[in-house]
C-alpha cells in the first residue's frame, strides 16, 4: 500500500516538475509570438505610411512642375509650342488666284489626329471623316483690327530651302488667326496640293482620275455656283476622300475686304450651309477670292470656325484661252519645290490637267510626299 502511495507521489512530483519547466517555455513562446505580430503590424503600418507619403510627394512634385492655371510647365509649353508649330499646315500675283489642346499622356493614350496620319504611300489614303470637320476656334475681338486690303502673292525672295520669304513673314504675322501661307517645316519634304474650282471646264474628272491613280488627296475649293451646277463632281470629291473647301458664294472680284462684316459672313456661311444641306459635309477651310484679305477678315474667318488657306506657289494657269506650255509649266512647278509647300492650281486649266501626273511622279522622285491639308 505504502509502495503504491510512494509511486503516486513520485508521479505527481514528476508532473509538477514538468509543469514548472513547460509553463515558462509556453509563456515565452506566446510572448514571442505577440512581439513578432506587433512588430510585423508596426512594420506594415510604417510601409503603408511611407507609400502614402511617396504618393503625396509625387503629387506635390507634379503640382510644382505646373503653373497655377494647370497648364504645362514652361519647358513642356515650349515643347508643345514647337510641336504645334511643326503641325501647322500650311504668286506671282494671280488675278483670280481665287485664294490643337494637347492630350495627356497615358499608357492607353489614343494619339490625336495629325497630318501625318493621312499619308499612306503604299495605298490610297483613307480620310478620317467623310463628312468633314467642325472647328471650335477661340473667338477674337474684331474691333480695332487693320482693315487695309492686302493682295496676296508669294513674291520672289527665297530662303535656303527655296521657300518664299513672304510666306514665312505672313505666316508669323497672321498665323494666330488660323491663316496659313506655308507649313513651316524645313526638315519635312511635304507638299499640300490645293485646286480652286470657280466653274467647270471639263478637266476635273480627269484630275480626279489622276489623283486616284497616284494615291494623292487634295483640297478642292468650290464656290456656291460650282457646287450647285456640278453636284456630282462635288460628291465624287467627297466620296474619293478629298477635302472640300469654301471659296465663297459669289467670288467677289474686289475681295471680301470690300464688303461689310455681315456681307463677308454671308459669303462664307451661305456656301457653308449649302454644302452642309446638300452633301451633309462640314467645310472648315476657306480660300479668299483673288487672294484679297485683311487682318479683320482673317480674324472673322477664325470666328466662323474656319482656317484661311493661302498658298506658297501659284502661277498664271487660270486663263483658259491662253494656257501656258505644258513642258515649261512643269519645269516652273518643279523649280519652285520647297518643304511645306501649299500649291495652288486652277482646276479649269488644261495644262494642269496634262502635267499633274508627271508633277506628282517627279516630286516624289525628289523625296517629296503629298498630304492633304487639314
Commentary on this structure:
- There is one protein chain.
- 45% of the residues lie in helices and 10% in strands.
- The longest helix is centred in the N-terminal third of the chain and has 64 residues, at 2-65.
- It has ten helices and ten strands.
- Strands 3, 4, 5, 9 and 10 form a five-stranded parallel β-sheet that branches. A three-stranded parallel β-sheet has the order 2-8-6. A two-stranded antiparallel sheet has the order 1-7.
CATH class type of the largest domain: Alpha Beta
What is the H/E order? HHEHEEHEHHEHEEHEHEHE
Report mean pLDDT, rounded to a whole number.
79
**Total beta strands:** 10
| Largest sheet composition | 5 strands, parallel
Separate helix tally: 10
What descriptive keywords fit this protein?
10 helices; TIM Barrel; alpha/beta
Chart the SSEs and their pairings.
Blueprint: H1 2-65, H2 74-87, E1 150-151, H3 165-174, E2 179-180, E3 190-197, H4 204-214, E4 219-222, H5 224-229, H6 231-239, E5 243-246, H7 261-279, E6 285-286, E7 292-293, H8 295-303, E8 307-309, H9 326-335, E9 341-346, H10 350-365, E10 369-371
Parallel strand pairs: 2-8, 3-4, 3-9, 3-10, 4-5, 6-8
Antiparallel strand pairs: 1-7
Offer a quick outline of the entry:
With 374 residues, this protein is α/β, with parallel strands linked by helices. The chain has 10 helices and 10 strands. It has 2 domains: 65 residues; 273 residues, Glycoside hydrolase/deacetylase (TIM Barrel, Alpha-Beta Barrel), CATH 3.20.20.
Amino acid at each position: 500500500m505504502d509502495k503504491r502511495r510512494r509511486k503516486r507521489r513520485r508521479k505527481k512530483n514528476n508532473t509538477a516538475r514538468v509543469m514548472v519547466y513547460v509553463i515558462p517555455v509556453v509563456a515565452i513562446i506566446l510572448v514571442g509570438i505577440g512581439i513578432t505580430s506587433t512588430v510585423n503590424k508596426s512594420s506594415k503600418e510604417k510601409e503603408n505610411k511611407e507609400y502614402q507619403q511617396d504618393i503625396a510627394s509625387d503629387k506635390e512634385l507634379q503640382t510644382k512642375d505646373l503653373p497655377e492655371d494647370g497648364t504645362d510647365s514652361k519647358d513642356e509649353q515650349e515643347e508643345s509650342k514647337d510641336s504645334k508649330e511643326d503641325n501647322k499646315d500650311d504668286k506671282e500675283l494671280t488675278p483670280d488666284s481665287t485664294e490643337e489642346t494637347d492630350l495627356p499622356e497615358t499608357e492607353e493614350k489614343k494619339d490625336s489626329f495629325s497630318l501625318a496620319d493621312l499619308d499612306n504611300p503604299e495605298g490610297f489614303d483613307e480620310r478620317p471623316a467623310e463628312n468633314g470637320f467642325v472647328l471650335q476656334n477661340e473667338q477674337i475681338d474684331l474691333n480695332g483690327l487693320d482693315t487695309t486690303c492686302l493682295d496676296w502673292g508669294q513674291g520672289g525672295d527665297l530662303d535656303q530651302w527655296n521657300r518664299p520669304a513672304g510666306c514665312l513673314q505672313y505666316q508669323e504675322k497672321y498665323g494666330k488667326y488660323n491663316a496659313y501661307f506655308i507649313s513651316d517645316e524645313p526638315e519635312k519634304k511635304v507638299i499640300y496640293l490645293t485646286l480652286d474650282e470657280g466653274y467647270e471646264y471639263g478637266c476635273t474628272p480627269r484630275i480626279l482620275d489622276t489623283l486616284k491613280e497616284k494615291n494623292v488627296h487634295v483640297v478642292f475649293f468650290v464656290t456656291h455656283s460650282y457646287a450647285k451646277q456640278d453636284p456630282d463632281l462635288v460628291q465624287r470629291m467627297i466620296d474619293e476622300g478629298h477635302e472640300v473647301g469654301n471659296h465663297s458664294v459669289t467670288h467677289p472680284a474686289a475681295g471680301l475686304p470690300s464688303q461689310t462684316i455681315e456681307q463677308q459672313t454671308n459669303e462664307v456661311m451661305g456656301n457653308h450651309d449649302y454644302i452642309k444641306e446638300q452633301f451633309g459635309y462640314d467645310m472648315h477651310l476657306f480660300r479668299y477670292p483673288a487672294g484679297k484679305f485683311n487682318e479683320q477678315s482673317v480674324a472673322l474667318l477664325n470666328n466662323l470656325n474656319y482656317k484661311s488657306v493661302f498658298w506658297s506657289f501659284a502661277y498664271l494657269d487660270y486663263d483658259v484661252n491662253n494656257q501656258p506650255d505644258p513642258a515649261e509649266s512643269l519645269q516652273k512647278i518643279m523649280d519652285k519645290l520647297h518643304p511645306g509647300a501649299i500649291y495652288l492650281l486652277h482646276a479649269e486649266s488644261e495644262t494642269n490637267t496634262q502635267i499633274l501626273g508627271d508633277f506628282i511622279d517627279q516630286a516624289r522622285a525628289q523625296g517629296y510626299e503629298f498630304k492633304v491639308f487639314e
